[in-house]
């Protein structure tokens, strides 16, 4: 399989992101539990929601596919200092940032997940804003399933097309795709129904699905406000503002944001439905 990995803003411009992100440097949705929730607290609440959804405890074995700027490992170490963390990221700039600002000993595979030789089992695997970047999603979800311990959990926080029709319309919009690729590399969104079909056929059990579209829209507005007020110079500021406004304009119209929790079921020695039917017959 040919893996398509482009150089993007992630590898060039750390200071662009520090101009508008929170102290955890989370470049995906926050969780605003009330109108009074601050932008900074929304990020902590979201990270805690993800960790709690995975039922993390001290000693847990955690894999993060796409480390970003280190928000998850930072919060993980604060709450569960004895958890074991492994990361995968193709961005040398982000890995350098993580090791300089979060954990200098962080074990991170410097490559795309598709090329990473990762050894399980893991109690939890996270893809926060990175599922869309996986190529051959069925194959990679099978790998993830096999990397999980029985009872282990997969957390996906990402954007999904509102419908198959919206997906087809947006795929015809070449300008939007070119902006996405230039800024953040190859990505492929799908409708939520497609992910559910794939995960079910692989053997995952869906534990929960929560809609964060309104939260992400509010997060995006805060990013735009902070970036517009920042001292970041042009053209970097202009280019990022254009992308953020374009992306934030799509919520509810074209895309939704969900956080999903899947579990690898534990083996249960029970007769199959067919065996039960034959027995009754």
TrEMBL record:
Q: Which SUPFAM superfamilies does the annotation name?
A: S-adenosyl-L-methionine-dependent methyltransferases (SSF53335)
Q: InterPro entries from the entry?
A: CFA/CMAS, SAM-dependent_MTases_sf
Note whether Ribonucleoprotein occurs among the keywords.
no
For this entry, list what GO says about its biological process: lipid metabolic process; methylation
- Enumerate the Gene3D superfamilies for this protein: Vaccinia Virus protein VP39
- One Pfam match, given by its short name, reads CMAS
Question: Which controlled-vocabulary keywords does the entry list?
Answer: Lipid metabolism, Methyltransferase, S-adenosyl-L-methionine, Transferase
The record's CDD domains line, in alphabetical order, gives: AdoMet_MTases
Q: Which GO terms describe its molecular function?
A: methyltransferase activity
Family assignment? Belongs to the CFA/CMAS family.
Recorded protein name is Class I SAM-dependent methyltransferase
Q: Organism source for this protein?
A: Chromobacterium phragmitis
């Amino acid at each position: 399989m040919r893996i398509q990995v482009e150089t993007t803003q992630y590898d060039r411009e750390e200071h662009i992101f520090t101009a508008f992100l929170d102290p955890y440097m989370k470049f995906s949705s926050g969780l605003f539990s009330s109108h009074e929730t601050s932008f900074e607290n929304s990020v902590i609440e979201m990270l805690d929601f993800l960790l709690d959804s995975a039922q993390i405890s001290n000693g847990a074995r955690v894999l993060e596919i796409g480390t970003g700027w280190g928000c998850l490992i930072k919060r993980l170490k604060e709450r569960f200092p004895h958890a074991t963390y492994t990361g995968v990221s193709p961005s040398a700039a982000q890995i350098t940032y993580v090791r300089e600002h979060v954990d200098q000993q962080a074990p991170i595979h410097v490559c795309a997940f598709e090329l990473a030789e990762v050894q399980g089992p893991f109690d939890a695997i996270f893809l926060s804003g990175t599922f869309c970047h996986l190529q051959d999603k069925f194959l990679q979800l099978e790998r993830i399933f096999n990397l999980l311990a029985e009872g282990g959990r997969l957390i996906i926080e990402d954007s999904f097309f509102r419908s198959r029709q919206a997906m087809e319309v947006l795929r015809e919009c070449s300008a939007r795709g070119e902006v996405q690729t230039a800024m953040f590399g190859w990505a492929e969104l799908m409708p939520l129904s497609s992910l559910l079909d794939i995960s079910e056929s692989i053997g995952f059990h869906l534990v929960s699905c929560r809609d964060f579209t309104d939260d992400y829209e509010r997060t995006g507005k805060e990013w735009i406000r902070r970036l517009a007020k920042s001292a970041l110079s042009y053209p970097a500021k202009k280019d990022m503002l254009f992308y953020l406004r374009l992306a934030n304009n799509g919520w509810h119209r074209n895309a939704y944001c969900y956080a999903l929790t899947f579990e690898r079921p534990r083996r249960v020695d029970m007769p199959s439905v067919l065996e039960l039917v034959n027995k009754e017959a």
